[in-house]
Amino acid sequence: MRPSRRILTLAGLVLAFAVPFAVTLLLTSSVAAVSKPEPKNLGSKPEPRVHHVVLPINSDDPTTMRALISTALNLPKHYRERNEPFEIEVVAYNAGVHMLRADTSPVKDLLRVVRGLTPDIRFVVCEATKLGMERAEGHPLVLLDNVDLVPNGPGRIIELQEAGWSYIRS
């Protein structure tokens, strides 16, 4: 007895779908069997993720500076309430350097409060901007206490972002 054309067509369709499906299942299950499960932390809580935030300031506008200070005070409060570690770095460049200058900062008293409440916030100034201001003004600049220099403010921000830091603009 010769198989009918309809049965041959049906058998061809079944093979056309069944063979690739079976191969996919075989390949998928073999990959799953080879992969190793992640080790579980037995009896201990996982380490909390450290939050890293960079706050740029490039404006001499006191309102913008106060907004940045508000953020610099509220973020630590938020993370402390959640018992999560954090790092904050304020990067001043261009006109924002005025925020951290001893002679021109309109917010130096507020910054003392920030330092008292959250001493672990790092404040840095773009050295290129500082040198340009010194040349233009004809005298060395005096920065507020506990302010560090970085070679380039925008470059520092880029490095931090590439390292996974979050960027918040005030």
Overall description:
With 170 residues, this protein is of the alpha/beta class. The chain is 48% helix and 15% strand. It contains five helices and five strands; from the N terminus they run H-E-H-E-H-E-H-E-H-E. The chain has helices spanning 5-34, 62-81, 108-117, 127-137, 153-162; strands at residues 51-57, 86-92, 122-126, 147-150, 166-167. A five-stranded parallel β-sheet has the order 4-3-2-1-5, sandwiched between helices. Helix 2 packs parallel to helix 3. It starts with a helix and ends with a strand.
Helix/sheet category? alpha/beta
DSSP strand content: 5-15%
Shape: elongated
Q: Order of strands in the sheet with the most strands?
A: 4-3-2-1-5
Mean pLDDT rating: 84
The Rg value, from CA coordinates, equals: 30 Å
Which percent bin holds the helix content? 40-55%
What's the helix-strand series?
HEHEHEHEHE
Distance N to C terminus: 84 Å
The largest sheet, given as strand count, sense and whether it forms a barrel, is: 5 strands, parallel
Q: Low-confidence segments, ≥5 residues, pLDDT <50? A: 30-34
Query: How many strand segments?
Result: 5
Features:
alpha/beta, 5-stranded parallel sheet
Write a brief structural summary.
This protein is α/β, with parallel strands linked by helices and 170 residues long.
List the helices and strands and how they pair.
Elements: H1 5-34, E1 51-57, H2 62-81, E2 86-92, H3 108-117, E3 122-126, H4 127-137, E4 147-150, H5 153-162, E5 166-167
